[in-house]
Amino acid sequence: MVSPTDVPQSIVLRHVSRHYHRGADEVRALDDVSLSIPAGSFVAFMGPSGSGKSTLLNLVCGIDRPTAGEVIVAGQRLDVMSEDRLARWRARHVGLIFQFFNLIPVLSARENVALPLLLVDLDRGERRRRAETALRVVGLEGRADHTPAMLSGGEQQRVAIARAIVSDPDLLIADEPTGDLDAKSAEEVLDLLRTLRRELGKTVVMVTHDPRALRFVDHAYHLDKGLLLEGHAAERARAALDLGLGREPGGGQGLGSAAP
Amino acid sequence: MTYLALVRANLRRNRLRTALTGVAVALATLLVCLLLAMPAGLDAFVSRVASNTRVSVINRAGLVYSMPYSLVRKIRGLPGVADAMAVVWYGGAYEERGKLTFPSFAVEADHFGGVYPDYHIPPAELAAFRQYRDGAIVGRATMRVYHWRIGQRVTLRSAIWPVDLDFRIVGEIPNADLGAFYISREYLDQALQAKGLPGLGIAGLIWVRVAQPEAVKSVMRMVDDLSRNSDAPTSSQTEKSFFSSFLATLKDFMTIIMAVTALVSLCIVFIAANTASLAVRERSAEIALMKALGFGRRPIFSLLLVETVLLCALSGGAGVALAVGITTALRVFAGRIPELGPLGAFYVTGPVIALGLGLALLVGVVSGLAPAWGAARRPVAETMREVF
User: Fold this and answer.
1) Do B1 and A257 touch (CB under 8 A)?
2) Contact at 8 Å (CB) between A255 and A63?
3) A15 and A32 in contact (C-beta within 8 Å)?
4) Hey, which of A258, B73, B218, B329 would disulfide with A55, CB 3.0 to 4.6 Å?
5) Is the ipTM of this complex over 0.95?
């Protein structure tokens, strides 16, 4: 267990690096990053493409493991866990939201939401009840039987959020959640994430290019070339973002794009 | 939401592909079941119509060579012989069909009942066969095909002898598997002589009924000893062996068919494996998503494997059901269509059903194993990099 500070820390990264090999070259996707994110906060990782923010997200949610350093989330050291143990840990502690929603097209909204509950020891009725509750939280109780093709982009993302919260995880990880949405839907999704953080006490970590996100988050971390920017560098990055200089057309490439 | 619901949804994802794979597996299972049913069916057929205490005696050189008619009288005098009867192939074709649709034999009417007590022909009909030289006893299968009745007259044109004879049906063999048409040897003999031809001095085949099963071997030895040093040495064997040797050629042919079927099944395994690989590749994003959500290697592997196994099992079940349906239909129609021959005796037995279903399951496991294992063992980060 991690030694607690005054405020319980949901995420602690200590000197974390993630290097890849591309042929003979070594790519430093993330280099000696240390940070602490308090439990129950809403934070964003921001930065240009290739800055390492998706790599960081992958490490925080236990999809990837660092080359060096410690990743401690919800009291567990993820960098020492096996693949299968990480899978079990993710099922219990992490809710994932993707840029392109990633719903299963042959399943209804209710079935999509109930998908993570297959990993929990619950009877069929209880799974259904929890899935419907999660859909109610995101305001889609009337769309439970609709397949993804019958829903708008904003509605699909809300189904994805319902899927992320249905197993009551400690941590919500959102990768460019507004990247494929119109302005109105993007605002609604950001507001929903903030509500989940405020009313359910979830820790929400988001990767985004969207400057609007700054109005919703408690803190934004800025990354560039695998380094965590601090002080004046972070201020400059934030100012550039406000001016739209750091924004990339079409958004980022998502969670999986972290590695070469 | 259950794992089974997820499997069902995935199988419905591409209905055409699922249906085509299912049909391929079902047809392979059907083929295998029918082929496996053949030897068992033929054996069952032989068991129903053949006896262990009846012995066939033929010229050792082959069935097309004859034996002297006098031999049958000598055989009747051997100890342990209950009765014996000389048989000559008549080769009769019914006028309405013009081709040989059932076997016809000229036999000794006085000894017919003695050689075939297990045919359970009523004594009155046997007496009529002995009484009327143009009398005929016909198997029930042929009687049904032509809707003949006892007392009816029919003309059979012989493909072997230069005579067309009229017969009066005087009896029926009450066994639906049998369709032979038995006429009196005396009648054929006289008809030939009436045409100025030499009479029947030969026997193409001699049937011998042995009184006791334990005496069969010694009787066969004694029978063959009678003509050991003659121009026409004989070869004796039980009726079951006699029919089985006929069917052995067919069974040899079936071995070749079985080998081809095995290759066809192997091809279907490859087709199913290819389909499963395609299905897994198409769903890379979903598999990556499920892994990211926390589905470990085991549930992913099981889910993908169960999909293939379930599809193959259901298709195999359909194939087995078809095989049972087809053989049942063959049995029903065998009485009306004599050309079906022993096909009408095919049964898809319990072991054949088990083997067919087992094969379908094996196809499912073998074809699903590699794609499922490949998808399950890839690290989640690698999978997500490729698809997101």
Assistant:
1) no
2) yes
3) yes
4) A258
5) no
Long-range pairs, B167-170, Cβ under 8 A, ≥24: B167/B134, B167/B135, B167/B136, B168/B132, B168/B134, B168/B135, B168/B136, B169/B135, B169/B136, B169/B137, B169/B138, B169/B143, B170/B125, B170/B128, B170/B129, B170/B132, B170/B135, B170/B136, B170/B137
What would the pLDDT profile of B280-333 be if each residue is shown by its tens digit?
A: 888 888 899 999 999 999 999 999 999 999 999 999 999 999 999 998 888 777
Q: What angle do CA A211, A212, A217 make, to 5 degrees?
A: 95
Cβ pairs bridging A and B (under 8 Å): 101
To the nearest 10 degrees (0 to 180), the angle between helices A83-93 and B380-387 is: 70
**Amino acid identity, position A167:** S
Q: Which residue type sits at A81? A: M
Do residues B25 and B268 lie in contact, with contact meaning Cβ atoms separated by under 8 Å? yes
Which DSSP letter does residue A48 get?
S
Amino acid sitting at position A123? D
Strand partners, B138: B172, B181
Tell me which chain B residue has its CA closest to the CA of residue A88: B294
Q: What is the DSSP letter of B21?
A: H
The answer to whether A91 touches A62, Cβ cutoff 8 Å, is no
Backbone dihedral angles phi then psi of residue B78, each to the nearest 5 degrees = -75, 145
Output the six-digit token pair for A146. Answer: 């609709």
Q: Which two tokens stand for residue A148?
A: 């993804």
pLDDT in tens, A175-223: 988 888 888 888 888 998 999 888 888 899 999 888 888 889 999 999 9
A257 and B385 in contact by Cβ < 8 A? yes
d(CA B174, CA A186): 86
Work out the number of other CB atoms within 10 angstroms of the CB of residue A225: 14
Interface of A with B in 129-168 (CB under 8 A): 131, 163
Measure in Å the smallest separation between the Cα of A180 and chain B Cα atoms: 13
Residue among B42, B48, B39, B24 at smallest CA distance from B352 = B39
What separation in angstroms does the CA of A34 have from each of A59, A188, A225, B335? 12, 32, 15, 88
